[in-house]
Amino acid sequence: MSAEPASDRVRLRRGANRAEYDRDAVLAVLDAGMIAHVGVTTPEGPIVLPMAYGRDDEWLYVHGSVANAALRAAVGTDICITVTIVDGMVVGRCPFHNSMNYRGVVVRGLARKVTDADEHLRALRLVSDHVMPTWDSARAPNAVEIRQTLVVAVALTEMSAKIRAGDPIDEPDDIDGPHWAGHVPLRTTWEPPVDAGDLPDGISVPPGIASLAGQRA
To answer: Yes or no: is domain 8-170+182-186 CATH 2.30.110.10?
Structure first.
């Protein structure tokens, strides 16, 4: 464990030895993830939705349709955003000690609707390029598409990570027993790009997309 949490709301109590509060380490997990789960309290009750996200040094951005009820309900309220990466399965000598190796981040804070036009466009680019770097190689979004997209920001202030790696933690009496223990690493990689069925001849894969092939996702 390193550094100190920004608040008790993001202090890990269960498994505190796996806590990570160092800002660079937490941001590294956000950069490695792809999907955030956004928890919002709506008039109909709480809801958690998966969303693409992006960030700069100060803000975590999520976006959706202006008709997205959860995002609209989030504005001006306290929300929770989580990102989880599963790195493998941990197999104990007893199923009670099965676990996962993972990296997870929790970000909590007041959701702010992005209204400044320049920040709105920049946030859309950050979200888009975090998922797939195509902003510079694709058609730019038009004014109608931009107006149809709601962007919500949460300050990268109250956040923490929890990271597990390595072997199972078994009972001492089981160590010399007959049962296998270990971990099964999980690795995901990008496959080579596949042209759309209606793609005209002569259009090549943008370098930013082509370079993904073989990289870990």
So the answer is: yes
